[in-house]
Amino acid sequence: MKKYITFFTLMFVIAITVPFSVFAEENNNALKLAEEAKSAILLEQDTGEILFNKNDQEQLPPASMTKIMTLLLIMEALEEGKLNKEEMIRVSDRAASMGGSQIFLEAGEEMSVNDLLKGVAIASGNDASVALAERISGSEESFVEEMNKKVKELNLENTKFQNTTGLPAEDHYSTAYDMAIIANELLKYETITEYTSVYEDYLRKGQDNEFWLVNTNKLVRFYPDVDGLKTGYTNEAKYCLTATAKRNDMRVIAVVMGAETPKERNAIVSGLLDYAFNQFETNKLFDKDEKITEVQLLKSKKRSIDIVSNQSVSTLHKKGETEKDITTEIVLEEEWDLPVKKGEEVGKLYVKDGEKILSEVPLTVEEDVEKASYLTLLKRTMQEMAKIR
Question: Is the model's pTM score more than 0.90?
Answer without folding.
Answer: no
